[in-house]
Amino acid sequence: MSSGIASLLDRKVHDRDDILALLQCSEDEAPLLYRRAAAVRDRYVGNHVYLRGLIEYSNICGKNCLYCGVRRDNVRIERYTLTREEVLEAAMTAYNLKLGSLAIQSGENSSKAFIDTIEELVSTICRMTDNRLGITLSLGEQSRETYKRWYDAGAHRYLLRIEASSQALYRRVHPDDDMHRYQRRLDCLKAIQDTGYQTGTGVMVGLPYQTMSDLADDVIFMRDFDIDMCGMGPFIEHSDTPLGERGTDNLFLKERFNLTLRMIAIVRIIMKDINIVASTAMQTIDPAGREKAISCGANVVMPNLTPARYRAGYQIYEGKPGYREVNESNVSGLNLDLIPGITLGLGTWGDTPHYGRRLTGKR
Ligand code: SAH
Ligand code: SF4
Predict the structure, then answer these.
(1) Pocket lined around ligand 1, Cβ cut-off 6 Å
(2) Which of helix, strand or coil describes residue 56?
(3) In Å, how far from its chain's centre is CA 224?
(4) Ligand 1 centroid to 267 CA: how many Å?
(5) Which tens digits make up the pLDDT trace of 91-146?
(6) Are 166 and 160 in contact (CB under 8 A)?
(7) Which of 37, 140, 216, 221 could anchor a disulfide with 265, C-beta 3.0 to 4.6 Å?
(8) What is the SS3 assignment for 229?
(9) Strand partners, 49
(10) Mutate which of 55, 64, 68, 73 for ligand 1 pocket (most atoms within 8 A of beta carbon)
(11) pLDDT, mean of residues 182-193
(12) Which ligand is closest in space to the CA of residue 238?
């Protein structure tokens, strides 16, 4: 059996059947997959982990995704939006701690006030930091014009998860209305790439109704879209959502965690030189979850800079760490002892070679 995955890993090109076989390899074989993925990471993008200081700007959301605790119909959370000063302070923290870049995430909002505010914040942060702090946005579906305005203001990466690349599965985990159309999500992702952003997408692993075949197709989707960044995490129930009514007391979290490690490793082996996030959802299931993801080929973490008093309001899923983990003695929040050989890529935007190559068409 183990010779099976070894020869699979040695193939130059992996088809859908190979991906399925890797996803379903035995627990004994999985470490071989993980080690290969880490070696590919070291060879193609180096043994560095890059940091994106995360600002959860607002939990006001116009959408109603069936899995998410921030969904519009959840009346049990208090809605907040950070002030301009709070955002700028968090940005300066990222800058002073040499995190190298910033990620601004939020519930979805397409009001004029929101769009104008983000534009102003992005340009102010660029000015304040002399363009030395990279800016990633993760602000959901917007018009092409909005993406362009934020890009022109100085943001250069955008993360919009497709959530589920299967249209049928996407439909099952979203309300059936015009705000939640698969085609619109896809069009937005394309618009983001066309605008010139380093483009990131990803999926949740372990969604209700999701099959192994769906996950294999997700990998193929990301490869064919030629993404620059990948953010994937296990689905974690939130009890105040339609898909979380059973609560978090279930037996499957560990399996989703392991499956996410496999997805990360496979995406690394297939796409080689992209940035892959070790997500906070991994850490929520296992305190060493992000370090384990890094051991399987991930190379980005997003230490949370949101002021502590807002944390309870940004519980996309239950059990999300509620503390501000970044300080001068540990800027990543990682336990680096668990990942020997890895160094932090401080004070740099942490771009990958992939984006430049995609633009010039070189392979
Ligand atoms: N509103 C924006 C960004 C914030 S949500 C957007 O939706 O793009 C960020 C991510 O949280 C989503 O893309 C989704 O993949 C993830 N998420 C939401 N609910 C989750 C849950 N219950 N478990 C795990 N991840 C979840
Ligand atoms: Fe809103 Fe994003 Fe949550 Fe959907 S996943 S409800 S768009 S915050």
Answers:
(1) 67-68, 105, 107-108, 138, 140, 160-161, 163, 204, 233, 235-236, 238, 281, 316-317
(2) strand
(3) 18
(4) 20
(5) 999 999 999 999 999 999 999 999 999 999 999 999 999 999 999 999 999 999 99
(6) no
(7) 37
(8) strand
(9) 344
(10) 68
(11) 98
(12) 1
> How far, in Å, from the CA of 66 to the mean position of ligand 2?
9
At which residue do the structure tokens 């698969």 appear?
182
68 Cα to the center of ligand 2, angstroms: 6
In sequence order, the β-bridge partners of residue 305 are none
Which of 86-100, 243-257, 304-318 is the least confident region? 243-257
Q: Give, using CA atoms, the residue closest to atom 2 of ligand 2.
A: 107
Q: State residue 218 phi and psi, 5-degree precision.
A: -60, -45
The answer to whether 270 touches 53, Cβ cutoff 8 Å, is no
Residue 2: band (very low, low, confident or very high) from pLDDT cuts 50, 70, 90: very low
Q: Which residues pair with 234 in a beta bridge?
A: 205
Distances (CA, A) of 338 to 81, 244, 341: 36, 32, 10
**Residues with Cβ within 8 Å of residue 128, at least 6 apart in sequence:** 88, 91, 92, 95
User: Could you tell me which residues come within 8 angstroms of residue 230 by beta carbon, excluding any fewer than 6 positions away?
Assistant: 200, 201, 202, 222, 264, 267, 271, 274, 275, 276, 277
pLDDT over 70 percentage in the chain = 96
If we measure between CA atoms, which residue out of 257, 239, 258, 240 comes closest to residue 249? 239
pLDDT at residue 3 is higher than 90 = no
Quick one: which of 179, 172, 286, 270 has its CA closest to 230? 270
**DSSP 3-state of 354:** helix
> Residue 234 gets which letter from DSSP?
E
Q: Please report the DSSP string for 153-199 in residue order.
A: HT--EEE---B-SSHHHHHHTS-SSGGG-HHHHHHHHHHHHHHT-EE
Q: Which residues pair with 138 in a beta bridge?
A: 105
Predicted local confidence at residue 249, as pLDDT: 57
